[in-house]
Design a protein that fits this description.
The protein has 23 residues and is mainly α. It contains 1 helix and no strands. Keywords: Oxidoreductase.
């Protein structure tokens, strides 16, 4: 479960970075 949580956080961080780069 811990690995899934870390992967989730990483995915959210990557999504935020992509959104910021688009703006």
């Amino acid at each position: 479960m811990i690995k899934i949580t870390i992967a989730g956080i990483g995915y959210v961080g990557l999504s935020n970075a992509l959104l910021l780069s688009q703006h």
